[in-house]
Amino acid sequence: MNIEELNKNHGIDGQVKFMEGAGGFPFIRVDNAKGGAVISVYGGQVLSFQPANEQNLMFLSEAAYYEAGKGIKGGAPVCWPWFGPDPQQQGRPVHGFVRTRLWNVIKTETTGNGDSKVTLGLSDTAETRAIWPHAFDLDLEVTVGNSLNLELITRNKDTAPFSITQALHTYFKVGHIDRITILGLEGVSYLDKVDNYAQKTQAGAITINSEVDRIYQDVQKELVIDDTAYDRRIRIQSSDSRTAVVWNPWARISAQMGDLKDDDYEHFVCVETANAGSEVVEVAAGGECRVAANYLIERNIPELKPAA
């Protein structure tokens, strides 16, 4: 992709600028009066979001790979058309194939309330059909304002239905993992991937003091990460999703990962808006489905308490 042409066709003076990023990938820098973001066209992936006068919402590993065929560790990777291991055990990539593809820039715009909106897209090719034999259009709409809004839209171009699982695999930056509480999942059933997918029920609010990899089922539309180290709360509102994934690799796995520093696990948690586990979405021929998440940083609000 030619950076000069991208700026000519899609740049917005003072708001949206294209530049060469790490690994030579095209990056999009979004800035407006409300906040800023960096988006990688490779992977269709938001790498950072920083509301005005705030710290970054997202964690991005300093050891992340910026190489074709590898995912970028941090930000908000898109898992599609499956979440987790290859559901048919054919040796295909974990979390699907779109996070390691160069997307297309579809549109950039300024909304009526001054937010900046970037739409990226990916369509099937002979290469993708060899991996997953379906015709599709996939769009990611990124809206940057006081909050960050992500909406992933799947369109089935086939003559038969297909099924997907998916996730917005967002890495949230936290002051320290032992000073966060995740609220909104009290009493919810989950699959514990660390314990061989055992079915369990969340007792109270979530605190993390060891490896956590859970798929929560039939979740409510709003979750909160209460971060006392940063004295802030991250409010996550989702739509068209009944599944939430909570992940932190803890010390051993973090040390084993080449694209994480040994102590990185202390500074992020993934709380993912998803259709995963038993929530499989069937998309009709010619139809579409959507999943969306909105992330808002809050300060100076009354103390939150877990649900009874």
Automatic annotation (TrEMBL):
One of its GO terms (biological process) is carbohydrate metabolic process. It catalyses: alpha-D-glucose 6-phosphate = beta-D-glucose 6-phosphate. Its EC number is 5.1.3.15. Pfam families: Aldose_epim (PF01263). One of its GO terms (molecular function) is glucose-6-phosphate 1-epimerase activity. Keywords: Isomerase. The active site is at H169, E272. Belongs to the glucose-6-phosphate 1-epimerase family. This is Putative glucose-6-phosphate 1-epimerase.
